[in-house]
Amino acid sequence: MIRLGEKIKTLRKQKNISQEVLASYLGVSFQAVSKWENGSTMPDVILIPAIASFFGVSTDELFDFNLYETEKQVEEICHEAWKYRYTDPTRSETILREGLRRFPGNHIILNNLLYTLDYQTRADEVVSLCTTLIESTKDDEVKYDACRILALCYKENGRSDLIKPTLEKIPEIYFTKLELMATLLDGEDSYKAAHMQKNLSAETLIDMLIIIGKHLKEQGEPEKAALQFRIAQKVMDAFEEDFLETKWFKETVYEYTSDQRKELATLLNP
To answer: How far apart are CA 91 and CA 85, in angstroms?
Structure first.
């Protein structure tokens, strides 16, 4: 604790600012900053990225961690947590919380933590964490993923007025890294990227067809709507014969779109 407090104090003095200025930026009292600096308390983990951003350093620098070793250990923590993300989110969260005790405020761990939180019952925590990452991380991948998750959280909690402003923070990109990797790399790297992009593209196409169909149906154009629904159905059916690459996936596109097939059956035969 004393080590972090001393680091904050050193950085603050180098920047030639008072405890009150730092406290105002972080939205805490100057007494809280004073307690950090004298080692009696620690900043909340949610504040660590913001503190690092304020001083223009990485969270690793803030804690004097070895960058290479930190990245390696953080990757191991997140990989272990990912194993349980969908089957046991509570266990996944526990692994990530333990990781944060070792690497407070690490934005990669915090980003992974968002995937374990329920957007409705823990909306305040999701919003706070997303906002912190958006404002403080220097990693665009983390920043824009936090924007996406924040927009989803607003959607699930009926805050439609906040969805568009949040999504507008994400730049429009007409290609993906996976697409370029599949096209420009060779061998296993190209093969893996192509598989992932194939499934992602199929899932996105199905989602877009259903969204377009629902809009047309609401606008009183059932024929056009049915056309979109049938195309989506054909896309899903086409993947029934696909094989499962177990190294990277737990289900095929056909298997994980079973709920959408049921929804389409209802939409086509109300």
So the answer is: 8
